[in-house]
């Protein structure tokens, strides 16, 4: 698995070099590698598909503008997530006062996320909906840590870089998120089975 990670890093750095030389196909490849992860980060922040899509577009526009500021020794995944997180914060500050209602927005279960194949698709949908609703009940930082860890497969160190907090705080927030999710989900377990 270690070889695959270093191979992926090499691929990303190759794409970045090609992008610096105005290779549009390389830019499309990089977008396809990271757009879903950036979307999940933004969606965990806003719970709104349109806002999340705006952040995805803005993140890649910013990447294209600032590609020459990225240094090869840096962790690209952390760098791009930091850009997306900062854009989320800016967007929230600009637009939150204009929002009248956060309810009725699209939930995570309505997104096209990969799910396990199941003989009973109705039961899987119920579990997915329950989990989504429970995830939304988490405090914002707990939810962001959980999404970055489990949907984006970031390591604690990478999450700490993205959120600009210590790895110990990330571990603590993750632990609290898991504990809270267990508490939120346990009343539903009897109904789903």
Can you characterise this structure?
This protein is mainly alpha-helical and 193 residues long. It has 2 domains: 1-106, Rna Polymerase Sigma Factor, Chain: A (Orthogonal Bundle); 111-193, Winged helix-like DNA-binding domain superfamily/Winged helix DNA-binding domain (Arc Repressor Mutant, subunit A), CATH 1.10.10.10. The chain contains 8 helices and no strands.
- The poorly predicted ranges are 1-7, 99-122
Helix content: over 70%
Give the overall silhouette: elongated
Order of helices and strands: HHHHHHHH
Whole-number count of domains: 2
Q: Cα distance, first to last residue? A: 36 Å
CATH class of the largest domain: Mainly Alpha
Instruction: Kindly report the name of the CATH homologous superfamily of the largest domain.
Output: RNA polymerase sigma factor, region 2, helix turn helix motif
Mean pLDDT: 78
Structural class: mainly alpha
Strand content: under 5%
The DSSP helix count reads 8
Total DSSP E strands: 0
Task: Summarize the structure in short.
The protein folds into two domains: 1-106, Orthogonal Bundle (Rna Polymerase Sigma Factor, Chain: A); 111-193, Winged helix-like DNA-binding domain superfamily/Winged helix DNA-binding domain (Arc Repressor Mutant, subunit A). Helices cover 74% and strands 0% of the residues.
Distinctive features:
single chain, mainly alpha, 193 residues, Arc Repressor Mutant, subunit A
């Amino acid at each position: 698995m270690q070889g695959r990670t270093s191979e992926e890093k090499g691929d990303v750095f190759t794409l970045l070099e090609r992008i610096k030389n105005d290779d549009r196909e390389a830019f499309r490849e990089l977008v396809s590698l990271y757009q879903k992860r950036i979307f999940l980060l933004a969606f965990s922040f806003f719970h709104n598909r349109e806002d999340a899509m705006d952040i995805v577009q803005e993140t890649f526009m910013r990447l294209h503008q600032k590609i020459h500021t990225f240094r090869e020794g840096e962790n690209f995944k952390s760098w791009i997530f930091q850009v997306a997180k900062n854009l989320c914060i800016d967007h929230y500050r600009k637009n939150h006062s204009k929002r009248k209602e956060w309810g009725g927005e699209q939930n995570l279960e309505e997104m096209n996320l990969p799910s396990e194949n199941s003989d009973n698709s109705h039961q899987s949908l119920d579990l997915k909906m329950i989990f989504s609703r429970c995830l939304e009940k988490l405090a914002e930082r707990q939810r962001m840590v959980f999404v970055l860890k489990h949907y984006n497969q970031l390591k604690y160190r990478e999450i700490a870089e993205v959120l600009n907090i210590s790895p110990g705080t990330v571990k603590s927030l993750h632990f609290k998120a898991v504990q809270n999710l267990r508490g939120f989900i346990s009343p539903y377990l009897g109904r789903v089975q």
